[in-house]
Amino acid sequence: MLVHIGSIINKKTVGKYAVPAFNTQDLETCEAIARAGEAQRAPLIMQTSVGALEYAGVEELVGLMRTVARKSKAPIALHQDHCHDFNLLKKLVNLGYSSVMIDASHLPYQENLKLTKAVVHYAHKRGVWVQAELGRILGSEDWQNVKSGQDLMTDPIDAAKFVAETRIDTLAVAVGSMHGIPVNPKIKKVLSTLKEHIDLKRLRAIHEKVKIPLVLHGASGVPDTQMRAAIRLGVAIFNIDTDLRVAFNKALRQNLKKHPEIYDPRKLLRPAADALQQEAEKKIKLLKANGKFIHLERK
């Protein structure tokens, strides 16, 4: 069922379990994510990147997501991941997303503040949540002037001030996780000096000062024990994409090699989608979201 994000993320759930936010870009991924939620009786977030919308088309992909979510027995909220374009966010709000992320973390603090406040003003008038980022999360989206991960991490005092001034609903924090799998040799060299893990001390300090749900991006590479610890420290949403892609592509390549005679795309893609579903179910259980099925009115 298609639900508002506020019905599956609230103060009562923070610290107990987290909701996975799975990226999608096509029919197979949408349906596999929904099946995972149903199988584990879990609420979840289906989200898009700007790249996914450019690949599939905004109306086309949103229409697909809404249809799959509405037909699913699992409570599913729609969210837009990292976006710099205010006009695109307006369009997605009007197309039915209940949460959008304005990422102005690449801008100076005051400019980040100004743009974020403008998005909040627009979205809140329409009952939509806003997520923003303070600090810079390492990975495929942010590589300028990277010398050490510490340089880009979220400052707890700045975070508290930023949340109070913008009135955002969720805050994406930079505490050591990374986006994607880097392929650029120079980027790999930088990453070789950085150990991907969550700075739990920093996360605890942020949680003590910030009273809204926290979001961890780049969760695919974080150790399971640290993900569980992060839940206790206020992380209510974990963005997961890379692990799903790896599972899908591994199964697809194996199927192509094993069955070179198959030419029907449906028969090639279904085992890959099943592998993605299995990986999504593992993440749901890791975040303790399984069994948290919430029966809500369809939107």
Automatic annotation (TrEMBL):
Binding positions (Zn(2+) 2): D103, E133
InterPro entries for this protein: Aldolase_TIM (IPR013785), Class_II_FBP_aldolase (IPR050246), FBA_II (IPR000771)
Residue positions of the active site: D81 (proton donor)
UniProt entry tagged with the keyword Plastid: no
Cofactors, names only: Zn(2+)
Pfam families, sorted: F_bP_aldolase
Cofactor note: Binds 2 Zn(2+) ions per subunit. One is catalytic and the other provides a structural contribution.
Name of the featured protein: Tagatose-bisphosphate aldolase
